[in-house]
């Protein structure tokens, strides 16, 4: 029991600080668990824009690609497809996983992680990394033919490619 007012304030300060640390840990845990879920309740009724904003995906929030993506992709939404994204982020993987509840999703990026550690819930595997039940990530250079052939041999035929990768003029095909 605190003896005076300053001890009481100090005790209260430490209790509040501990609560904040615990709350932050719970928020982080919820975010990691959310990534493992194939679909959040009601996602199938939500627009790509809504999901993209919630996942803080810059292609939706800043560049507004949802205007084009929605027109092109809504017809595929309820189908079992294979999607390959070149140039991935945690937000894009979560967005596609939620927008396409029945899709197998693959991602390629040159700078994901050392080993397989950018994401807290990644499970190491022989080639590529399992991000969730339906999402698999590969680290490598899309311009490396050997790497691409290895990925495509494992993935097989894909139905949709979203290329948000390199933006250098020499690697862009119009």
| Average pLDDT, all residues | 76
Q: What can be said about the biggest beta sheet?
A: 6 strands, mixed
Low-confidence stretches: 32-36, 114-126
Look at the helices and sheets and give the structural class.
Answer: alpha/beta
Query: Could you tell me the number of beta strands?
Result: 6
What is the rounded Rg? Answer: 21 Å
Q: Give the topology string: H per helix, E per strand.
A: HHHHEHEEEEHE
Name the beta content range: 5-15%
End-to-end Cα distance: 72 Å
How many H/I helical runs? 6
Quaternary state reads single chain
Query: Which term fits the overall shape?
Result: elongated
Strand order of the largest sheet: 3-4-5-2-1-6
Query: Helical residue percent?
Result: 40-55%
Q: Explain this structure to me?
A:
The chain has 174 residues and is an alpha/beta fold. The protein is 41% helix and 14% strand. The chain has six helices and six strands, in the order ααααβαββββαβ. It has helices at residues 5-36, 48-54, 58-61, 66-73, 90-99, 145-155; strands at 82-86, 104-109, 123-124, 129-130, 135-139, 160-163. The protein has a six-stranded mixed beta sheet, with helices on one face. β1, α5 and β2 form a beta-alpha-beta unit. Mean pLDDT is 76; it is low at 32-36 and 114-126.
Characteristics:
174 residues; elongated; 14% strand; single chain; alpha/beta
Chain-wise SSE layout:
Layout: H1 5-36, H2 48-54, H3 58-61, H4 66-73, E1 82-86, H5 90-99, E2 104-109, E3 123-124, E4 129-130, E5 135-139, H6 145-155, E6 160-163
Parallel strand pairs: 1-2, 1-6, 2-5
Antiparallel strand pairs: 3-4, 4-5
């Amino acid at each position: 029991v605190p003896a005076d007012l300053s001890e009481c304030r100090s005790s209260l300060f430490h209790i509040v600080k501990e609560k904040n640390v615990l709350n932050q840990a719970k928020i982080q845990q919820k975010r990691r668990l959310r990534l493992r879920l194939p679909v959040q309740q009601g996602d199938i009724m939500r627009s790509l824009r809504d999901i993209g904003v919630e996942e803080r995906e810059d292609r939706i929030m800043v560049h507004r690609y949802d205007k084009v993506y929605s027109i092109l992709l809504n017809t595929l939404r309820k189908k079992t497809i294979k999607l390959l994204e070149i140039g991935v982020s945690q937000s894009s993987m979560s967005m596609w996983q939620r927008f396409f509840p029945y899709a197998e999703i693959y991602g390629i990026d040159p700078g994901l992680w050392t080993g397989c550690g950018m994401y807290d819930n990644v499970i190491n595997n022989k080639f590529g990394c399992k991000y969730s039940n339906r999402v698999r990530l590969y680290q490598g250079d899309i311009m490396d033919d050997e790497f691409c052939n290895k990925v495509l041999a494992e993935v097989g035929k894909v139905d949709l490619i979203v290329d948000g990768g390199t933006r250098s003029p020499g690697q862009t095909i119009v």
